[in-house]
Specification:
alpha+beta; FAS1 domain; seven-stranded mixed sheet; about 15% strand; globular
Length: about 230
């Protein structure tokens, strides 16, 4: 937010007051002040009209479904057409709450809330700043062999490493997401493609640009693995 230049503004107001006083002092007693009242009224009407236009533009900017991308957005809207877990509903809540209301993100919610491993609770962190999140849907976790998923869940350090690799500081819109981004975990994730063909480290974006109060979410069809962990395996 830009800081307003308060001192010059006050100086301009003071100068205006002096000029108005001088003009008032030179006015004939028979002069009617009503003639000068028309201009402020016109300015007020003009400002009112401008404010209305700004409100309409804000409403357009705030439409949570305006910038969605991905081949699965229609299926998502059909699955959750309204309510807390819908696109509109998620936009009203902080990230952790929004994710918990989405029926496609139940496993991810368990992982970030300490339910999967009590030593890994990222709720306060994820709700405390602005992020871009690549959120694996439940089918993505379901594709991991059960023994591997259990091993990951039981290792707090590894689980934290994987989860924070899905999070990038700041909110990034779909038309700016392509490129390389440094994750909260510290390693880079690469986004390629555009529109409905976005890929994140080889994982397809199911539906992206989903807004929450503090995050922009991209639902992905695969659990991402940091390069360091992939190399180790």
């Amino acid at each position: 937010m830009k800081t307003r230049k308060i001192l010059p503004t006050l100086g301009a107001l003071a100068a205006s007051a002096v000029l108005m006083s001088a003009c008032s002092g030179g006015m004939d007693e028979g002069s009617s002040p009503e003639q000068g009242d028309d201009q402020p009224a016109a300015e007020q009407d003009s400002a009112s009209d401008g404010g209305g236009m700004g409100e309409d533009m804000d409403d357009m900017d705030m439409d949570p479904a305006a910038n969605l991308v991905g081949p699965g957005c229609a299926d998502y809207a059909e699955m959750v057409p309204d309510g807390d877990g819908s696109v509109e509903g998620m936009a009203q809540d902080p990230l952790s709450v929004a994710a918990s209301n989405n029926p496609m993100l139940t496993t991810l919610t368990s992982a970030i809330s300490g339910e999967l491993n009590p030593d890994v609770d990222l709720v306060d962190t994820l709700d405390g700043d602005e992020f871009t999140v690549f959120a694996p849907v439940d089918d993505a976790f379901g594709a991991i062999p059960e023994d591997d998923l259990n091993a990951l869940a039981s290792d707090a350090d590894s689980l934290s490493t994987v989860l924070t690799y899905h999070v990038v500081p700041g909110q990034i819109a779909p038309d700016e997401i392509a490129g390389t981004h440094t994750t909260v975990q510290g390693e880079d994730v690469e986004v390629t493609g555009s529109g409905d063909d976005l890929m994140v480290d080889g994982a397809a974006v199911v539906c992206g640009g989903v807004k929450t109060q503090n995050a922009t979410v991209y639902l992905v069809d695969t659990v991402l693995m940091p390069p360091s962990m992939a190399d180790a395996s």
